[in-house]
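Encode chain A's predicted structure.
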Amino acid sequence: MRHLAYASVWVVLLFGTQAWAQEAAAPESVKPGINEKFLDPELNVEEWVNRFEVESREVFAAKSEIVERMKLSPGDRVADIGTGTGLFVEPFSEAVGKDGWVYALDIAPKFVERVEKLAEIKSLNNVTPVLCGQDDIRLAPGSIDAAFICDVYHHFEYPDQSLASIHKAMKPGGKLVVIDFNRIPGESREWTLNHVRAGKEVFRAEIEKAGFRFVNEVEVPSFKENYFLQFERR
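Encoded structure for chain A:
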């Protein structure tokens, strides 16, 4: 019985230590709950199409300018991270051509399903929808030449982990484009100040810390609220 008691103590200590280690290692969200609505199994996709794909949305109105300034080449493999309703999937598919590939990633199963149907309807044979994790884009190492994060970086709950997975998936010298909202107290809309956790300088510093070199801020003449930053994977 004494041996059994000692064994039980060791089991408790072992599993207790493992549980503590797992808890200690678990990343902490920088904006808890910001993605809750997208993870809803009853997500109404059409509602988001009507919100995302309208002229009043700056990146929708500037879609052609954005794609042009991405400077994708035929044969490129690009990850559209946080693809949402798939706004950029078709133009990216055309830009990279039959020898390139588009990975359309999202954490929302309903958005991934929509992009899958969109690719089928439009015969986009170089598009793969991917259900990614909240802290991992789930792409193979060295599998992409470029990554595109449009109005999505502020939704990264675990930016360190997400950026690490992007860095791992990207080839050295690969291109990372981040478009997000200017958050300037006293100038930005109240919605932006409440919704977007930090400004451009903070986001840039996080991305550089993750192993990306800042290249430049690209001018998009029609932008009033957004900015376009370009980085290179070191």
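The radius of gyration is 20 Å.
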